[in-house]
């Protein structure tokens, strides 16, 4: 991968456009080189981020389903606040209509403790590819938590 | 043979309605307690742990603090189920920080599983933070939405995820 092994992680900026709240995140270029490179190449991204309904304090930003990546730097049970991950679910993966049958490529953002990436049938394995800087996390998490009351928000992700 | 008419609930979620039937044979004490506080109104909140579920928090003199009436593990969840849920104050670290101050202290609510897949046990067991101790963490299935569940009602429930809190009233349907 182009950037892996340089010892310097690339940085992305996540912004709730309506609230004006931003956070910087480091890509894990060495640990997840393919995923980080692919996400970097997709930027800038802008779309509606929704609150997860199975995983606790976690957000979901849907990608085009053509973004299919192999397993890399996988995480299942214990994300920490600020983790950014990629997840892909092929069609008909879960039992249960209609949601489990729908193909989906996603970026997940964990913003609080006690999250666990999971769907209706249990834990999901995800590609951990980035982490939000600690100094920016509290403000970002507060804006994310407001989505439970206020609904989905627009999120922009760009190269920093 | 004389049969009692099953008592029913009317749920009005931001103008969309559905009815539900109480499980009085299964959980008579819980049903009676719920019936006696109706009508109840509030802002419903979408679940973020247990899938297609909205919750109505009970406030003030509507708060119910009921014992566990049926075995916890019999509360397996299906689409349409309505549960009474209670969690004592200070039991859960952090989880309710997004809620109002009251709900960070004590949680008494109706959990309405409006769509498939429903929680399938996930919410009932809530493994990170849910020790099942009597009078501390209580869950009891007490009703189910009548079928077919109106699609408009289900869509309104789902919209809470995208648009935020929605007004919900649960009343007696007589």
> Distance between termini of chain A?
19 Å
In one word, what is the shape of chain A?
globular
Largest sheet: spatial strand order of chain B: 1-2-7-5-6-4-3-8
Please state how the strands of the largest beta sheet of chain A are arranged side by side. 1-2-10-6-7-4-3-11
Rg from alpha-carbon coordinates of chain B: 15 Å
String of helices and strands of chain B = EEHEEEHEHEHE
* Uncertain ranges of chain B: 121-125
Q: Which class of secondary structure composition applies to the elements of chain B?
A: alpha+beta
Total of DSSP H or I helical runs spanning 4+ residues of chain B: 4
- What separation lies between the terminal Cα atoms of chain B? 23 Å
Largest sheet of chain A: 8 strands, antiparallel, barrel
Structural class of chain A: alpha+beta
Mean pLDDT score of chain B, rounded?
Answer: 83
The rounded Rg of chain A comes to 15 Å
**Biggest interface pair, residues each?**
A-B, 31 and 27 residues
Question: What's the rounded overall pLDDT mean of chain A?
Answer: 91
Overall morphology of chain B: globular
Number of helices of chain A: 3
Strand content of chain B: 25-35%
Give your account of this protein's structure.
The complex is a heterodimer of chains A (160) and B (174). With 160 residues, chain A is of the alpha+beta class. Chain A has helices at residues 33-42, 134-145, 147-150; strands at 11-16, 21-27, 45-51, 58-63, 74-75, 83-89, 104-110, 118-119, 122-123, 126-132, 153-159. Chain A has an eight-stranded antiparallel barrel. A two-stranded antiparallel sheet of chain A has the order 8-9. Chain A is globular, with a radius of gyration of 15 Å. The mean pLDDT of chain A is 91. Helix content of chain B is 18%, strand content 32%. With 174 residues, chain B is of the alpha+beta class. Chain B has helices at residues 28-37, 101-105, 122-125, 151-163; strands at residues 8-13, 16-22, 40-46, 53-57, 81-87, 107-113, 137-145, 166-173. Mean pLDDT of chain B is 83; it is low at 121-125. In chain B, strand 1 (8-13) and strand 2 form a beta hairpin. In chain B, 41% of the residues are buried. At the A-B interface, strand 3 and helix 3 of A face helix 4 of B.
């Amino acid at each position: 991968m182009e950037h892996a092994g340089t010892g310097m992680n690339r940085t992305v900026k996540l912004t709730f456009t309506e609230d004006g709240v931003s956070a910087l995140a480091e890509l894990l270029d060495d640990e997840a080189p393919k995923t980080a490179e692919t996400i970097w190449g997709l930027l800038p991204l802008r779309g509606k981020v929704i609150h997860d309904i199975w995983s606790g304090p976690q957000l979901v930003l849907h990608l085009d389903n053509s973004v299919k990546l192999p397993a890399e730097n996988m995480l299942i049970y214990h994300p920490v606040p600020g983790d950014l991950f990629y997840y892909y679910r092929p069609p008909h993966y879960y039992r249960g209509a209609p949601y489990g049958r729908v193909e989906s490529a996603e970026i997940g953002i964990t913003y609080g403790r006690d999250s666990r990436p999971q769907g209706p049938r249990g834990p999901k394995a995800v590609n951990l590819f980035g982490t939000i800087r600690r100094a920016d996390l509290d403000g970002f998490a507060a804006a994310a938590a407001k989505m439970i009351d206020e609904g989905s928000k627009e999120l922009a992700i760009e190269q920093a | 043979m004389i049969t009692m008419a099953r008592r029913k609930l009317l749920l009005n979620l931001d103008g969309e309605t559905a009815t539900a039937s109480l499980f009085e044979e299964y959980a008579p004490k819980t049903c009676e307690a719920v019936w006696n506080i109706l009508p109840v109104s509030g802002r419903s909140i979408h679940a973020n742990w247990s899938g297609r579920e909205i919750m109505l928090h009970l406030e003030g003199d509507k708060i119910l603090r009921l014992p566990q009436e049926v075995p916890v593990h019999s509360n397996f969840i299906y689409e349409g189920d309505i549960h009474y849920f209670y969690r004592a104050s200070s039991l859960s670290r952090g989880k309710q920080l997004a809620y109002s101050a009251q709900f960070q202290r004590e949680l008494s609510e109706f959990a309405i599983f409006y769509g498939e897949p429903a929680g399938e046990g996930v919410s009932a067991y809530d493994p990170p933070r849910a020790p099942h101790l009597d009078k501390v963490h209580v869950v009891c299935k007490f009703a189910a939405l009548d079928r077919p569940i109106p699609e408009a009602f289900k869509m309104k429930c789902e919209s809470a995820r995208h648009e935020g809190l929605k007004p919900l009233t649960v009343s007696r349907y007589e």
